[in-house]
Amino acid sequence: MKTRRWPLYSLLAFGYAFLYVPVLLLVVYSFNASRLVTVWGGFSTHWYGELLNNTQILDAAWLSVRIATVNATLATVLGTLAAMALVRGGRFRGRGGFELLLTAPLVMPEVIVGLSLLLLFVAMQHSIGWPDGRGFTTITIAHITFSMAYATVVIRARLAQMDRSLEEAAMDLGARPIVVYLRITLPLIAPALLSAWLLAFTLSLDDLVIASFVAGPASTTLPMVVYSSVRLGVSPQINALASLILLFVSLAVIVAGLAMARKRD
Amino acid sequence: MSMNQTAAEEIKADSQAPAYSDNRLRHWLGSRWRPGRWVTVGLPYFWLLLFFFLPFIIVFQISLAEPQIAQPPYTALLEWVDEAVLQVRLNLGNYALVVEDELYRAAFLNSLWVGLVCTLGCLLIGYPMAYAIATAPERWRVPLLMMIILPFWTSFLIRVYAWIGILKGNGLLNNFLLALGLIDEPLAILHTQTAVYIGVVYSYLPFMVLPLYANLSRLDMTLLEAAADLGCRPWRAFLRVTLPLSLPGILAGSLLVFIPVVGEFVIPDLLGGPDSLMVGRMLWTEFFSNKDWPLASALALVLLALLVVPFVALQRWQSRLEGER
What we know:
Chain A is mostly helical. Chain A has one domain: MetI-like fold (Orthogonal Bundle). Chain A is built from 12 helices and no strands. Chain A has helices at 6-29, 46-52, 55-88, 95-107, 110-128, 136-161, 165-172, 177-188, 190-206, 209-214, 222-231, 236-264. Chain B is an all-alpha fold. In chain B, 74% of the residues lie in helices and 2% in strands. Chain B is built from 15 helices and 2 strands.
């Protein structure tokens, strides 16, 4: 069966162009000497220098990275436990509800999640005095809540495909369950743990809506700074910041991808 | 204490019977290994109940309150009057307002409309892409797929921002079209509903392509060969074989796009204009500008109610997929 492939491939190329051209233009214009973002005024790294002197952006970036790190670590731990429960747990009471609670955060509109978590924090502070004020803790808790659902999806897929014969062999040889878990299961799902961690990290670094709801007046994350400056119009500094973020994320994804590919071989 | 018990149980199990791997595996995974089970199920379950489920009950409660200028800015539902009478005040006015007011109704209808149009848009662009990747030579599939996933990893806010520079009145698209002589004066695209469509389709395209690819890559190609052998033309074979078999993928992708888009805030706020009313945006305004927490809560719950049906459909699809494995 021979069908002409070129119409299909040109549609594919169009799709990739649609996905990548806007981002490439963004990067190109971050090196624009002109303040007018859309008029080319020659090559310059001026805006990168300006960015590195912008303490507001740097402080916000530092806060975001701290939140994202704690979030990614805890979300991966909780996601691993949840995936173990779903893949290995068999039937348990409340499994349906558990799966529902793990799927809902994947598609739930962010405004709903943000609003409901803020109202929870306000009510908790009112009744038990914790959390005292809003900021790092509340944003991290909110991020873990939706990131763990994504982490679970990634780890669950890996666990479900995993060959169990190694675990069984270790048990036959008398290894205790916890030892089997730490020395066999965890190393085998390590690539998935890494992807889950990276995914949770970028999701947290990227979140504007939920953080805006649960952040206090003193804590401003990077997306919140970007958002307020973007609302005022296009700025070359934001282009420079965007390019740096794109560079870091692409590098991380490519390195992780290569590491996993090598492991598989 | 419980750890000792487990150890004791294990020793007992060891002395009773030879350690058949199957037995021990079930022992470990089954209901008898209590501490591990409690942690694996209990900890994430507890977290989600506390930080995902409980908040909805509070939202429901506050949606029945009235706004007041105080801290917190809503009235209590239960109040002791004279220390002996418990007064219950439920206010259904917020829901009445959300359902009856023209503005809110328009926002809900428009949100659903944007969700529908953009789901179709993602499907039209995403289906050929997923099909091309699924039928591409084996060694090309992973890199092609990686290229779909990569934008998903980069900042959502920044990808939306990129479109502002392109769609502006003096933006890149207009400059380009003017230079080509295709238009005489700049097109007004930014701050219109069209810009919202473009931004949403662009941002949510990977969510459509991935489930479609997952479905199409498992398609049994011999069915198409059989159709061709029997004289069926490729286009007809696609309509009668491929398309019906890929319906689960279409459904999954559509739901993954439709549900979050209906409540989208960032895209209509940055790219849309005054005419692109959407619920997410109204909720944001009620909350942050008007400080009307009860009304914002009512909006959130009505939005949630609208999304229950597509959400249950998604859940069904997922558990069926799990069953197939």
